[in-house]
Amino acid sequence: MAIQSLRSSKMRSGLTALGIIIGIAAVIATFTLGSSFSAYFTDELDTTGSNYIIIAATKENIFYDQQLAIVENTPGVTGASGELSGTGVIAFAGEQKNKTVLGWDENIEEIVSLPIYEGNFISNNDMYSAAIGKKIAQEDFRNEIGLRSTIDVTLYNSETKEYVTETFKVKGILGSDETNLMTGNQEDEWIVIPIETMRKMTGKDDYQTLYAMTDSRETLNETDDEITLRLARNLGVSDRDIYDNNTDKIPFLTTNQAEIVDEVSSLTDTLQWFLLGIGGISLLVGAVGIMNIMLVTVTERTKEIGTLKALGYSSRDVLMMFVIESIIISAIGGFIGTIIGLLVAYVGVSYLDLTMAVPYSSVLFGVGLSIIIGVLAGAQPSYKAAKMNPVDALRSD
């Protein structure tokens, strides 16, 4: 009887279900997109670096070999590296370009999982070998720079106040055809040379950034804290300022892979809850629509209710008939909304080139939530119908 009643007013039933369809579609699409983004970020961070810690100096001339040794000898650290950076002039085949030049040793490749597009990364035995970004090699010069090509690198020497030019043989091409979450594919425009060579060319012997690799993700934060404590004490920072995290006194900042994962998760969770709030509003509107239509339906079918009761239908029978009507509308709306939500999510992840992660619990949640909404929204109108006096119902106009 409930199904026949809904069939007799298909347009109204469809419009009533529309609010539920939109709300459930928004909820399912949000859950699925959020799960896909979280899976993507987690996979990217897992493949970018090996439990790394970055220690960036906020002042000049504070990190030297002594500080690098402190980091390297900290319990839990399995590898460390320092960095020098500057802007240099790159010359190839009669053309010159200003590019970022980095001085690194061979350890950095494993620490931050540098993507090697072609060839090999520089080693500690190299003096005049370089690894260059894919964009520099393929796009920035009229002639493509290939492996074993030679380039001239010019850097300013702060000691002699002169520009120093050296010739380097290209040993590797940095970069990837895929987007790197951590670097934003900045490595496509890097020139990497051995750090000892960079020191000689620039006249600098300090590091601007230190990198550390730990043996376990679980101890990453503890190792980070221990590095901070040891470095700060070495640089003359008092224990009070260290434990108070006084950034004015501590001349460096640290970040690690676990913190980045937490920040990304927090951002995706915040966005997901925001979108869920919008979906929740749509569901509320849909629930009000169901309640409104059911109240109208009860009013229109007053004589029918009186006839049913006169024929022996109990109040419970009448109650269940109207509740079932609202449940059917909500369940159909929830099912259609789930399909639409998954389709929207599929289009979104395909456009963003992500792997779709379908949380099947959210699908069950969506359909279940729509049924609950149907029960709650239809409860009051159904109760009103069930409590009608059959004589008064039959007399109504």
Provide structural commentary.
The protein is α+β, with helices and mostly antiparallel strands and 397 residues long. Helices cover 54% and strands 20% of the residues. The chain has 13 helices and ten strands. The protein has helices at 2-7, 10-47, 65-72, 108-111, 134-140, 195-202, 220-234, 239-243, 257-300, 302-310, 315-351, 360-386, 390-395; strands at 52-57, 77-92, 95-104, 116-119, 129-133, 150-157, 162-174, 190-194, 209-214, 252-256. Strands 2-3-8-5-7-6 form a six-stranded mixed barrel. Helix 2 crosses helix 11, helix 9 (257-300) runs antiparallel to helix 11 and helix 11 (315-351) packs antiparallel against helix 12 (360-386). The longest helix is centred in the last third of the chain and has 44 residues, at 257-300. It is elongated, with a radius of gyration of 33 Å.
